[in-house]
Amino acid sequence: MIKDKSIYKILIIEDNPGDLYLFKEYLKDQIISPEISSAKNFEEAIAILSSEVNNVFDIIFLDLSLPDKKGEDLILEIVKLSSKKPIVVLTGYSDIQFSIKSLHLGVSDYLVKDDITALTLYKSLRYNIERSKYIAQIEQSEERYADLFHLSPQPMFIYDVETLQFIDVNKASVDSYGYTHDEFLAMTIKDIRPKDDVGILKSILNKVDINKTINIDKYIRHQKKDGTIIYVEITSNLIPRKNKSVRVVLATDVTSRVKYTEEIINQNERLKEIAWIQSHVVRAPLARLMGIIHLLRLEEDKKHEKSHFLFDEALKATDELDEIIRDITEKTSNIDINEDKDEI
């Protein structure tokens, strides 16, 4: 038989010397070098688990009936001192029902003493250590997610996809929108939209599959507690949380960008108006002036070379001016800001 070469630090809290010896032998039968500590009563267990040097166990095996403490009180105290390490209860047949209940008190598993073998004890050790590591990874992942959510400089919120109720908001949302955290939790996402936009919001949500990401190509309008309207860019993803589907939303305030774009568009309209004036208003008297010069030239005596020269220079100047106006009009007309991200 191939023994496990891993190093396991094990604490067995057991007052029966015979059972303690048997459990140690079982572990040595499956593991090459298990590091086993033991306590024969609750007082010794406290001393071991309270020591920063010794409290480095991978797993704790716990007898439910110790001379100085037993049952629920024993479990709660050991769980408190275990630093979230897996606890496997060792029980006799008469304790099975309570052992099942103990799972709700924080223990990882329970074993009936009369059914324990070297293999079952080893399997329980491996299973509960690995499960503990997996749970720790999940908790770390959730903590990182919570940090990313709550410490984000951009407003973020989570809402129920069925009720549209806010489930959580970060500090940036509270600071940006002016509502307190509790006020947000009493609201739905409809409450931060202008009244005129609620129908549009419903239309968008009705078109979106509940299991897909919402992709909105346009800016949307949100309303702060003081009534201020802002434009936001939405990034939204569906995530599972506590057996239900929720959406986590990042709302980036783009109000300054939208206002700047509007100013460019307004400037563009003014330039177009100037181009129209140049094309229709300025060029009209210029055209008349050019016509008059042509008529005067025809009536002028061809012998008057000096006058003829002056007419030629005047026509040349008006032609140049006409060309300049045409060029300005063409360049101005070509200025066009195509802004697709209108408010919805």
Task: Provide a quick synopsis of the model.
This protein is 49% helix and 17% strand. The chain is of the alpha/beta class and 344 residues long.
What is the H/E order? EHEHEHEHEHEEHHHEEEHH
What sort of overall outline do the alpha carbons produce when their principal axes are compared? rod-shaped
- Per the CATH scheme, the topology name of the largest domain is Rossmann fold
**Numbering strands along the chain, what is their spatial order in the largest sheet?**
2-1-3-4-5
* Number of H/I helices: 10
The first-level CATH class name of the largest domain: Alpha Beta
What count of structural domains? 3
Describe the 3D structure.
With 344 residues, the chain is an alpha/beta fold. It has 3 domains: 9-148, Response regulator (Rossmann fold); 153-253, PAS domain (Beta-Lactamase); 257-333. Helices cover 49% and strands 17% of the residues. Strands 2-1-3-4-5 form a 5-stranded parallel β-sheet, with helices on both faces. A 5-stranded antiparallel β-sheet has the order 7-6-10-9-8. Helix 1 (17-30) crosses helix 5 and helix 9 runs antiparallel to helix 10. The longest helix is centred in the last third of the chain and has 45 residues, at 255-299.
Keywords:
disordered C terminus, about 50% helix, Rossmann fold, about 350 residues, Beta-Lactamase, alpha/beta, five-stranded antiparallel beta sheet, 3 domains, 10 helices, five-stranded parallel beta sheet
How do the strands and helices of this protein lay out in sequence?
Blueprint: E1 9-13, H1 17-30, E2 35-39, H2 42-50, E3 59-63, H3 71-81, E4 87-91, H4 96-102, E5 109-112, H5 118-150, E6 156-160, E7 166-169, H6 171-177, H7 181-185, H8 198-207, E8 220-223, E9 229-241, E10 244-253, H9 255-299, H10 305-333
Parallel strand pairs: 1-2, 1-3, 3-4, 4-5
Antiparallel strand pairs: 6-7, 6-10, 8-9, 9-10
Helix pairs in contact: 1-5, 9-10
